[in-house]
Amino acid sequence: MSSNPLEAVDIARDYYNSEDADHFYSTVWGGEDIHIGIYLSADEPVFNASLRTQERMITHAEKLSKDSRVIDLGSGYGGSARYLANRFGCHVVAYNLSEVENDRARELNREQQLDELIDVVDGNFEELPYKNEQFDLVWSQDAFLHSPDREQVIKEASRVLKPGGDFIFTDPMQSDNCPEGVLQPILNRIHLESMASPRFYKSVAEKHSLKFIRFEELTEHLEKHYAAILRETQKNEKELQANVSKEYLENMKTGLQHWINGAQKEFLSWGIFHFQKPSGE
Predict the structure, then answer these.
(1) Quick one: fold of 5-276?
(2) How high is the pLDDT of residue 6?
């Protein structure tokens, strides 16, 4: 684990740049995204469930159009950026720390003829290279948990958001009433000392001039998603071993089970946050 912000960023970058992680996530997680899905059935494909999360999140946004500027923090393979650009014709900055993921995102953008609408930018979201009040929508899916300084991430999101703009994100969290110490196996897995909670995000968002609009509680899908990923991993394990190390797969299966257990015991929380930057500030 690391409490050093720069070290934590390097750990996350090295992990997602690794050949094992790149092949696993691009194969098992649906190919477009690396985030949690909303499931209608236990055996639903991960890709379909992931797309439904994007569709549900966008119902929280207001006034999004082709003239809007959007930034996706921790954009992974760029699936959400492509979804937003394709649906609304808006300009999207896909901001992500993994150069390997970003190269794949650029390739997919070109294949889908969306590269003129999407700028893929390398960087960590604790320090955004943009002036104040540049974006109509700040968006993120399941990325902030990797930051050792989540308050700084929220502060930056607020800074670059225009007055009246929306901040919409998801993040795997500990529940507000989670007992101390029970999430250590998960924390060991993500190399950090803590997780955020719904109460934490509401508090720091308010501190940094963001108005709380809604938290759509969807924790039931956390267990469903990690169970689906575990089943896909086990089902395709022989094929995965051609490109992914046995050690990585064993660690992944163990880690996925920790997430499932935490969700089953109600130690975890997940859902869609919607904050807004008040107009006239």
Answers:
(1) Rossmann fold (3.40.50)
(2) 57
